[in-house]
Amino acid sequence: MGGGPIPSVSTPITQAEAQQGADLHPQLLAEFGGSMSGTQAAYVEQVGKNIAVQSGLGNARDSFNVSLLNSSVNNAFAIPGGYVYTTRQLVGLMNNEAELAAVMGHEVAHVAARHSQRRQQAAQQNSLLGAAGAILSGILLGNSAIGDTLSRTFLQGSQLLTLKFSRSQELQADDLGIQYLTKAGYDPRAMGTVLLSLASQNALEARLMGAGDTRPPVWASTHPDPASRVQTALAKAQGLPGSVTNRDSFLTRIDGLVYGDDPAQGMVEGRQFIHPEMRLAFTAPQGFYMLNGTSAVSINGQSGKAQLTLAPYGGDLSTYVRQQFAKLGGNQQQLAPSTLERTTVNGIPAAYGIARVNNGSSQVDVVVFAYEFAKDRAYHFAAMTPAGSSNVFNAMFQSMRRISASEASAVIPRRIDVVTVQRGETVASLARRMAFDDAQVERFRVLNGLASNEEVQAGQQVKLVIRAR
């Protein structure tokens, strides 16, 4: 089943669209870790602009702005005006240049077909979606239904404020992307294979978290599941010309790319979050998972959600806590703690408050727990649980601690390491070199797009994830 008739997409980017993109671009860079520079970013930009030319948009090479984002989320998206983005994490999951071109082509297609503009009017009916939330067009990352200001606040830290696109629009972007691949001489099957890698990564993450279908994938569930699009994309590619994949040159280009969290943004290690620059660490409750954003880390589970972030601090913790409650309430309601207590956590001055809030037909408890790390610097958890259940986060609040300089210096990022398979090496032997304590074979297979029974061959290039500065 396809995405319906392909619209005419030859209309050049308008001045209004270009201005809209230019206004949003800095906000998106800030939210997704900033734009990377260097040879890897230049390579992504080159492939993105080359595929944009195939869209038929006038002066496409100069009209498009392509950014490689320093984010550990598997995501790619576009906004009006020709701004196209992919994260380094998603690039690390790819296995050849054709797959990179496929993802870039899908996003270019959203721009060319004006999908954002067609959905923006409906999104604007929900006043809680800001301008950025109204027009982002991710290939995978979507927008959870945001019912109120509180929910929106808790989603921001996990980078989930993007617009839901219709199934027909997503399939249409896949179709157009396959057309662009064919015109550029790439193997058109790359759209299907990159979607398969994403579906496999999604399933692996769900298994590793032990949450089954209760945990949303990192890219959220608002765009059609990659698994449901794989066969459609592969069928569309059948019989089309094009065979270029540039696998080995692609792998050489991404060798050394940071994989997972960047220590400069803090790192999630199992249930622990550690930030070597802010010199702090805490442990999430059992059964919860964390998503690390640029400005906040979110902690999510069936019995509540929380996020850790910072705000301007004037030197008084009680005032700081009240200010955070007021921000959470926004313009919708006056929110203030019913109680406010001072305490100390592992030698750190702290204060916390709690408020009960009507949330439609139910009630929720909102907790702000703040810590003074210096006279001019404080961090705080904002947590939301069903009424009477806020104690689910007590152990996490009490786990906050300072880390030493030596502990901070020992935090080393993971990176992609491209190696050549030697005679006698197997999937199992290579997987043992992966810098993970669990599921090494499964992680290796997903990272390299290998089926469950597929073996490696001597002389083949594969990706490992190792610890390296």
Could you list some keywords that capture this structure?
single chain, 17 helices, LysM_dom_sf, alpha+beta, 469 residues, zinc, 22% strand, 4-stranded mixed sheet, disordered N terminus, metallopeptidase activity, 18 strands, Membrane-bound Lytic Murein Transglycosylase D, Chain A, Mito/Outer_Membr_Metalloprot, 38% helix, 3 domains, Protein Transport Mog1p, Chain A, 7-stranded antiparallel sheet
Description:
It is a single chain. The protein has helices at residues 15-31, 39-53, 60-63, 88-93, 97-112, 115-124, 131-135, 149-156, 167-184, 190-209, 226-237, 247-254, 317-329, 394-399, 405-409, 427-431, 440-447, and strands at residues 65-69, 76-79, 83-87, 137-138, 258-259, 267-269, 272-275, 280-283, 289-292, 297-301, 304-310, 339-345, 348-359, 362-374, 377-386, 401-402, 414-420, 461-467. The protein has 3 domains: 15-259, no CATH class; 263-409, Protein Transport Mog1p, Chain A (3-Layer(aba) Sandwich); 414-467, Membrane-bound Lytic Murein Transglycosylase D, Chain A, CATH 3.10.350. The model is unreliable at 1-8, 122-152, 154-162 and 211-222 (pLDDT under 50). Helix 5 crosses helix 9, helix 10 (190-209) packs antiparallel against helix 11 (226-237) and helix 10 runs antiparallel to helix 17. By secondary structure, the chain is of the alpha+beta class. The longest helix is centred in the middle third of the chain and has 20 residues, at 190-209. The strands form 4 sheets. A 7-stranded antiparallel β-sheet has the order 9-10-11-15-14-13-12. The chain has a 4-stranded mixed β-sheet with strand order 1-3-2-4, with helices on both faces.
